[in-house]
Every structure is written in C-alpha cells, then in structure tokens.
Amino acid sequence: MSSALRLARLPALLTVALAVTLIMLPGRTELVLHIYALAIASIVLAHLVRAVRSAHPVATGSPFDAALRKPRRQDQRLPELVRVEGEVSLGMATAFDFHYRLRPPLRRIAGELLAARRGIDLDGSPEAARKALGDETWEVVRADREQPLDRYGAGLEPAMLQTVVASLEAL
C-alpha cells in the first residue's frame, strides 16, 4: 500500500464518522464540524512532526550537555588494595601500627615466598631465612621482634619499606 493511501485512511474514516454523526445529530452541526476540524488538524500535525523528526534526527547531546554530565567511574578500586594501602599508611605513621598492622602481612608474604620459592621455613630456619631476605628485611619480619616502647614513635621509614619490598620481590 502506498504511503499516500496510508495517510488518507484515517481522515477518510473520520469523514465517514462525520457524515454519520451529522445524520444522527442534526442540531449539533457546528460542534461536530469543530471536532472534525480539530481531529483532521491533529492528524496533519502528527504527520508533520513525524516528517520533521525523520528529516532532522534528535541530536545525542550538545558538548555543553556532555560537559555537565557526571563522568562515569571506570577505575573502581579493589577493597583489598584499599585495605593494604591503609595498613601501609598507618604502618609508616606510628611504631604501634607498624608492629601490629603492617608487619604481620609482611611476615605472611615473606613466609609464603620463602617456602614457595626457596623451600625455607621463616620460623623453622631463621638463619637461612635471614640470609635469603637480608638483614634489614629480617629485622622487620623476624618472629622475636619486640613490641615498640613508644607506641606513637615513628613507623617504618619509606626507604626501609622500599628495601623490604625489593628484597621480597627478589625472592
């Protein structure tokens, strides 16, 4: 069916309804004609709007609108990474936090790496572990390290942390 016939179908139906209504309500001719004109005008308007939309598609958005939109967060941080960063920050701040927060994970990592890569038990073979880790790292992870006397004293120095991480990576 051609597009002209499809467009003419609804107005033709309205015209038939107009004729039937005029026959049934002869005293309401003016009101029926107003309603008919309104219905035809709304059909024409709907077709015009559809034609304009197809000729000029809606833009996806202006650069101004794009700048106002909140950017999506694509770099969601892993909760475990946030926890480790907190432990490192605290461990570098005070001696207490270093001893009770940062040192246990460093001991666990050192023990697992020594066992997996060198076959050395951290607590069972302290001399072999000390030789594999180096004196500075051994002082951090040894089991008999004493609690700090000054809880609020300086934590692990950044250079020392770098040395410990480098020696663990070298295993």
Question: Can you walk through the features of this model?
Answer:
The protein has 171 residues and is mostly helical. The protein folds into two domains: 3-57; 85-170, no CATH class. 71% of the residues lie in helices and 0% in strands. It is built from eight helices and no strands. It has helices at residues 3-24, 29-55, 63-68, 79-93, 95-118, 126-133, 135-141, 158-170. α1 (3-24) runs antiparallel to α2 (29-55) and α6 (126-133) packs across α7. It is rod-shaped, with a radius of gyration of 41 Å. The relative contact order is 0.08. The model has no long low-confidence stretch (mean pLDDT 87).
What is the general shape? rod-shaped
Poorly predicted runs are none
Quaternary status of these chains? single chain
The total count of strands amounts to 0
